[in-house]
Amino acid sequence: MKVAFLSAFALDANASLINALRKKCDVYFFIEALYEISNFIDKEKLAKTITIGTEVEELKRFHDFISLDKTYVIKGTRNINILKKLYISHKINQLVKKINPDVIILDNYMLTYFISTLAFRKKMLMIVHDPFLHSGENYVIDRYLRKFHFNLIEHKILLNENQKNEFIKHYDFDSNNIHSSFLSIYDFLSYHRTDEKFTSSQFNILFFGRISPYKGIKYLLDAFVEILATQNYPNISLIIAGSGDFDFDIEIYKQYPEITFLNKYLYPEDLANLIFQSSVVVCPYIDATQSGVVMSAFAFKKPVIATNVGGLPEMVKNDETGIIIEPKSSKDIVNALLKLYNDRDLLNEMSNNIEKTYFYGEKSWDASAKQFINAMKNVK
Predict the structure, then answer these.
(1) Is 359 exposed, middle or buried (0-12, 13-18, 19+ CB in 10 A)?
(2) What is each CA distance from 378 to 30, 125, 204, in whole angstroms?
C-alpha cells in the first residue's frame, strides 16, 4: 500500500508513527516548516518551496528513523498570504499526484493541503486529534475549518477509543467511517537527550506543555504547597515548564525555592532532559482528549499522574503505569504524589510496566500502526 502522510508537524508522534508504518507500507511524509517552534525546522534555511528531507539539516539525525528520501519539507507561509498559500498548495498537489498514493493520511485542517484535500478527499483518512475543542480554545476559525474538513473527508480516525461513540453521536457520523487507534511513546525525543548520566535522590515532579486554562496547573501548585507545608518530605521539587499565559496569579508560588517556572517554549533538547531528570510527570487536566505529554513521559519510562478525563485513562493504567485521579482535586494530587514519594519500589515497577507495554507490547507503535492500516483498508 502506498501512503502519503500530509502533516503540519514533524518531530512528534507523527515521526514515530511514520517509522512504524514504513515497515508495512510505502510511506511518503510531508511536513510544513512554518513556525520553528512547531516542528523545529528553520524555514529561512530552505531554498525551495519543497525540499527533500535528505537536504534538511534538522532532519539528518533521524536518517535511521524515517526515510528522508521520501520526506518532503514545505516552506510554509501564513494564511493571510492567501495567493502564495494556494500556490504552495498547488505545488504540493502536483507532487502528490506524481506519487499517486492509495491512501492519504491528513493530520490537520490547514490551507496548506487544501487543493490535495479537494482533489483526493475520497482517498483520505483524517486524524482527529481533538474530537471536541478544549475549554477556552473554541475559536471561530477552528470551528469553521473543522466543519469544512469533517464534511469533506468521510473517513476519520481518533487517537483514543473512549470518545469515539460520543464523537459519532455528536456529529451524527456513520460509525463505519469512524476508526480509532492510539498514541504510543514519543521515542523521537531520545534522539535529543544530551544528559547521558543522571542520578539523584531528589524527587522531581514535572509538569510540561502549553500553558492553558484546561491544564489545571493551579491544582498541582496548591497540592505541592500543601506538601511543603508539612515539612516532612525533603528533597522534593516541582518544575512547571511551557509557554503561554497563566490564568491565575503565580507570584505567590514563586516565593518557594522548591518551585521552578520555565515559562518558555521547550525545544526537544530541553524537554528530553527535563523528562529524563524527573521522577514523575503530572497531568492535572480539567478536560482532555489524548495527551502527547503522557507519551513523552513514557518515552523515558516515567510514570504519570493524570486526571480521569478524555482518553487519559486509556493511556495511564492506574497503579501500573501511573495513577489516575479525579480532576480539580488538589487532595487527590497530594495523595498520589506522596504514594510514589514513599514507595520508590512502586515507582520503579511502574517504569518497568511502561517499558513492557509501550516499547514492546499492546500499546507499542507497531500495534498502533496495525490499527491505522485496518482503517486505511476501509478507504476506497
Answers:
(1) middle
(2) 22, 9, 46
pLDDT for residue 138: 55
Contacts of 180 (CB under 8 A, 6+ apart): 157, 158, 159, 160, 161, 164, 371
Beta-carbon contacts of 131 under 8 Å, excluding residues fewer than 6 positions away, are 158, 163, 164, 166, 167, 170, 289
0.85 cut: is pTM over it? no
Do 301 and 354 meet the contact criterion of CB atoms below 8 Å apart? yes
Measured from the Cβ of residue 44, the count of other Cβ atoms closer than 10 Å reads: 9
Taking the C-alpha atoms of residue 91 and residue 32, their distance in angstroms, rounded to an integer, is: 13
- Break the chain into its structural domains and give their ranges: 2-184+364-376, 188-360
Strand partners, 3: 27, 103
Q: Which residues contact 4 (CB under 8 A, 6 or more apart)?
A: 27, 28, 30, 96, 99, 101, 103, 104, 105
Asked if the domains at 2-184+364-376 and 188-360 fall in one CATH topology, the answer is yes
**Positions of the chain with pLDDT under 50:** none
Residue 360's SS3 state is helix
CATH architecture of the domain formed by 2-184+364-376 = 3-Layer(aba) Sandwich (3.40)
Q: Report which secondary-structure segment, H or E, holds 282.
A: strand 280-283
Tell me how far the alpha carbon of residue 178 is from its chain's centroid.
Answer: 20
Q: Can you read off the three cell numbers belonging to residue 342?
A: 514513599
Q: Is 100 left (phi over 0), alpha (psi -120 to 50) or beta?
A: left
C-beta of residue 316 within 8 angstroms of C-beta of residue 294: yes
Q: What is the DSSP letter of 173?
A: -
- Give pLDDT, residue 345: 96
pLDDT at 268: 83
**Please, what CATH class does the domain formed by 188-360 belong to?**
alpha beta
Question: Pairing relation of β-strands 304-307 and 280-283?
Answer: parallel
Contact 306, 322 (CB under 8 A): yes
